[in-house]
Structures are given as C-alpha cells and as structure tokens.
Design brief:
Strand content: 15-25%
CATH topology: Dna Topoisomerase Vi A Subunit, Chain: A, domain 2
Structural class: alpha/beta
Number of domains: 1
Distance between the termini: 49 Å
Helix content: 25-40%
Number of strands: 8
Strand order of the largest sheet: 2-1-4-3-5-6
C-alpha cells in the first residue's frame, strides 16, 4: 500500500465528540469540543452517564449542556469501533439519532450489533409522519430486505421505507427536524 511503500505514517482514525457536562469538561482540562485520534479518546477516564451518537456534525454542534452527557458525531457507517471506548460501554444510556431513511436504520442496526444497549432517538414512524413537509428523496436506498438488530417497530419502518409506503424513497434528514422538537425529546430522555 501507499503508506508502507512511501514510509509515511497513516493518519489515525479520529473521532469528534463534545463534552456536554461542565464537571466532565473539568476532567479533560476544560475541553468541550474534541477531535482526536480514536485510541487517545478510548484511553480517557470519562465517566459519562449518557452518550448520544448523531450522524451529522451540525446536529452534534447544536447540543447544549446536559448533566453527565457527551455527544459523538459524524461517523456515519464508521460506528463499528465505538464499542472500543470503555467509557461508552460503561454509560448508563446510549442513544443513536441518524437520518430517518433506510441507511440511517442500517447504521443503527450495525451499531447495535456492537453495542446492544443502544436506543434509537427520533427514528420512528411518528417522527417521520409528523415531519412530512420536510421529506426529501433518498438517493440510493439500502439494498437489504431486513436489517439485523433492529427492534420490531424499527424493522417495520425499514420495510415500509424500502417498500415506498408513504412515497418514493422517502427520507427525513436528521438536521431537518426542528431543533426545538429535537432538543425537548433529548432533554426528556436525559432526565428519564
């Protein structure tokens, strides 16, 4: 490969996270927005009680302070290493919020294959139907007939999206959900 042939070091896998709790920020030198090599973040002693994983960077940047919480962002399908973070595995709750389309549900299933405790956030039929005016078209739906590790409702939603139940290749991008609606749901999950 190029890196071996040239003698150059391959760039490390990096992860971006925001520390949403002032007490947790104090444990990492006051840093609130961290983009660092994955292995270094895995070595942090970060006693987060609640972890939010969001598909898009803009959504992660919109989060405000929440006690005991961190948000990881912009991994897309590259969620397979997240289970290597000891502090994430030890969290009381882990939530995933991605685009409400076939690929977002596939990422949820993939993540849950590594972290079975993951709960979806705003990735349900009610959220989809409530935001009908904000739908766009999914360019290339996921090809699988079913996705492993989705619960019954998530699997039905995946089938309905693939089957064009509500229209051709319906998609609700995460960042189109009104932040007031999203933040109210996030705060209620964080307090419950």
């Amino acid at each position: 490969d190029f890196w071996r042939a040239s003698g150059l070091r391959r760039e490390p896998d990096r992860l971006r996270l925001r520390v949403l709790d002032p007490a947790l920020r104090a444990r990492v030198g006051g840093l609130g927005d961290i983009h660092a090599p994955f292995d270094q973040l895995a070595a942090l002693a970060l006693p987060a009680r609640r972890v939010f994983i969001v598909e898009n960077k803009q959504t992660g940047l919109a989060f405000d302070d929440l006690p005991g919480a961190v948000v990881l962002m912009a991994r897309g399908y590259a969620v397979d290493r997240l289970h290597e973070l000891p502090w994430l595995r030890a969290a009381d709750a882990v939530h995933y919020w991605g685009d409400l389309d076939t690929h977002g549900l596939a990422i949820l299933g993939h993540l849950r294959g590594h972290l079975p405790q993951v709960r979806s956030l705003l990735m349900d039929e009610a959220t989809l139907l409530t935001h009908r005016a904000l739908w766009v078209t999914e360019p290339q739906p996921h090809r699988a007939d079913a996705i492993e590790y989705l619960d019954t409702a998530e699997q039905a939603l995946y089938r309905d999206l693939r089957g064009d139940r509500w229209g051709v290749r319906v998609r609700l991008e995460q960042e189109r959900v009104g932040w007031d609606v999203a933040w109210a749901k996030i705060r209620s999950m964080a307090s419950g």
